[in-house]
Write a structure and sequence with these properties.
Layout (H helix, E strand, L loop, with lengths): L1 E5 L5 E6 L5 H14 L17
Antiparallel strand pairs: 1-2
Length: about 55
């Protein structure tokens, strides 16, 4: 499973590659990325898979 954090300009902030889908690891990854950002995001977009919601 590949997780990517991308800013509004399309620049890749960070990536996480996993063998299996792990919801807890994904949450930790995005918390770390968001903590490193100065301004919080206005929105977060996923590819609309039901398993992400």
């Amino acid at each position: 499973m590949l997780w990517r954090a991308v800013d509004q300009h399309g620049a890749e902030l960070d990536i996480l590659l996993q063998k299996r889908r792990d919801k807890a690891a994904a949450k930790r990854f995005f918390k770390q990325v968001l903590a490193a950002c100065r301004d919080g995001p206005r929105r977060i977009v996923a590819d609309q898979l039901r398993s992400y919601l």
